[in-house]
Amino acid sequence: MAELGIEQQSDERVLTLRLTTGEKVAALHGDLTAPLSAVRHVEVVPDALAATKGLRAPGLALPGSRKIGTWRSKGHKMFVVARRGEPAVRVELEGQPYATLLVSSPDAPQVARRIVTARG
């Protein structure tokens, strides 16, 4: 299961998205990192699958079940790890390859709170 967390790298704290091996294969992507200073907004969304917008390119979509990978729409790129029946944490970023990270988690409110607290 993908995990959002906060890590210290060199002289700055970063938001990390750690993917399982299967998620890396499905997304055709590795783990992601972004400086905490790039985080603009964090929120919990009740339905990760419904919150995914755009066209998949590249990634995996199992209708009504899972979405993993990159979703693109005009001028916007989102990285998604979404599972049916789970809330997700949506993180809006500035100046990063992905404008949005959308990650399912059964503990979404706690994960979001940790990110907001770490961001200060």
Characterise the protein shown here:
With 120 residues, the protein is an alpha+beta fold. The radius of gyration is 13 Å and the shape is globular. The mean pLDDT is 96. The strands form two sheets. The protein has a six-stranded mixed β-sheet with strand order 4-8-9-7-6-5. It has a three-stranded antiparallel β-sheet with strand order 1-2-3, with helices on one face. The protein has three helices and nine strands.
Briefly characterize the structure.
The chain is of the alpha+beta class and 120 residues long. The chain contains three helices and nine strands; from the N terminus they run E-E-H-E-E-H-E-E-E-E-E-H.
Let me know the average pLDDT. Answer: 96
Helix content: 10-25%
Could you describe the largest sheet, including whether it forms a barrel? Answer: 6 strands, mixed
How many distinct beta strands? 9
User: Treating each run of at least 4 consecutive H or I residues as one helix, how many helices?
Assistant: 3
Task: Name the shape in a single word.
Answer: globular
Identify low-pLDDT runs: none
Task: List the main descriptive attributes of the protein structure presented here.
120 residues; alpha+beta; six-stranded mixed beta sheet; 9 strands; 19% helix; globular
Give the topology, please.
Elements: E1 3-9, E2 12-18, H1 21-27, E3 32-35, E4 39-45, H2 48-51, E5 55-62, E6 66-73, E7 76-83, E8 88-93, E9 100-104, H3 108-119
Parallel strand pairs: 7-9
Antiparallel strand pairs: 1-2, 2-3, 4-8, 5-6, 6-7, 8-9
